[in-house]
Amino acid sequence: MIRAGIIGATGYTGVELVRLLSGHPEVSLSSLASHSYAGETFSGVYPAQTDLCDMELSVQDPEKVAEVSDVLFLALPHGHATEAARAGLARGIPVIDLGADFRFRDKKVYETWYKVAHPGEDLFPKARYCLPEINRQEIPGTAIVGNPGCYPTSVILGLAPLLRRGWLDPASVIVDAKSGVSGAGRSLALGSHFTEVNDSIRAYGITDHRHTPEIEEQLSRVGGTPVMINFTPHLVPMTRGILSTMYARLSEDLTDEVLREAYMEDYGNEYFVHLLPENIFPRTKWVYGSNHVHINLKADRRTGRVVVVSAIDNLVKGASGQAIQNMNILMGLPETTGLTAAPVFP
User: Fold this and answer.
1) Cβ contact 174:225 at 8 Å
2) Per-residue pLDDT for 327 more than 90?
3) What does the pLDDT read at residue 187?
């Protein structure tokens, strides 16, 4: 059995890792570390896990967690992953960072957008951005996995087939994305209180959301040319899910049939990514609690644009499920192991 340690086990991505890994046939949980709840049981913090995971939570000591683990998951806020990553590397075990600290190649880009100094630039050569459906072949042997962000996952998978073929004007991309409140994390904040969110929708991070450079960097890699986007996320009164609607100018006159063929070529053999039937557009409810991605698109012949819509569960394919997908690849397991549960509906 693969021993999995989690640092930051009581945040929303941490508890999702515990839920999914508890059902993974090749994994045993070796250590659950928490800054806020050390000494308590996991099921005491999350009673939904009663008799399923009653492990005692330890202090966040990276060296001790790494010592009893074969893979180390970091479910920490940005700016806090470097020490734990060093502990994992010292033990020779792979580190999977669900935060933003190892998603970028350029320290200056990270520090500009995240407003904190990065103490681990020397580790960048050991890290790799790992979105399996895009760069699967680069993942085996990776020492530090930069697990993609939730919004970027939905956008990159949505636009990659078009950019890869040079079919989009790279300066014309507009992304309108909507997320459930769990994306804000478990910490108390006025903006995520029930009375602030219920019966309302609001845009935030307008022109300066931190996921913008991640999306641009990865889309530029896919397309082989610089991509600059307008990205506007919105908070909507639901618990889980991201729906991204993307608009871009087509570089040539293409029919829906040709566009759909491209997506089938790229994703037809992917277990988790699904091109929906024509004129059936994604809903977050259809991927709830799963590692699946739903995509559809339509050419607007009148404006010369294409509209692409994607839906994911932000805590699964947008975070913890994707982290496990990456772990499976690193450990030589079938990529779908522990992730085949169907979405919860209704």
Assistant:
1) no
2) yes
3) 84
> Is the pTM here over 0.70, yes or no?
yes
150 is catalytic: yes
Q: What is the pLDDT of residues 101-130, one digit of tens each?
A: 999 999 999 999 999 999 999 999 999 999
pLDDT in tens, 142-185: 999 999 999 999 999 999 999 999 999 999 999 999 999 999 88
Which residue out of 85, 150, 229, 287 is catalytically annotated?
Answer: 150
Residues 6 or more apart from 176 whose CB is under 8 A from it? 232, 234, 244, 245, 246, 247
Question: For residues 55 and 32, what is the distance between their CA atoms, to the nearest angstrom?
Answer: 8
8 contacts 75 by C-beta, under 8 angstroms: yes
Q: Residue length, the chain?
A: 346
C-alpha–C-alpha distance, residues 3 and 267, integer Å: 32
**Residues in CB range of 240: below 8 A, 6 or more apart:** 180, 182, 284, 288, 289, 313, 314, 315
Quote the pLDDT of residue 189: 87
Whole-angstrom Cα Rg for the chain = 20
User: DSSP state, 146?
Assistant: E
Contacts of residue 186, Cβ cutoff 8 Å, sequence gap at least 6 = 10, 11, 12
Distance between CA atoms of residues 63 and 59, nearest Å: 11
SS3 (DSSP) at 296: strand
Q: Residue 116 burial (CB < 10 Å; 0-12/13-18/19+)? A: middle
Mean pLDDT confidence for 271-297? 98
Contacts of 230 (CB under 8 A, 6+ apart): 173, 174, 175, 207
Annotate 221-254 with DSSP letters as a single string: HHHTS---EEEEEEE-SSSS-EEEEEEEEBSS--
Per cent of the chain over pLDDT 90 is: 97
Helix-then-strand count for the chain, H and E: 11, 13
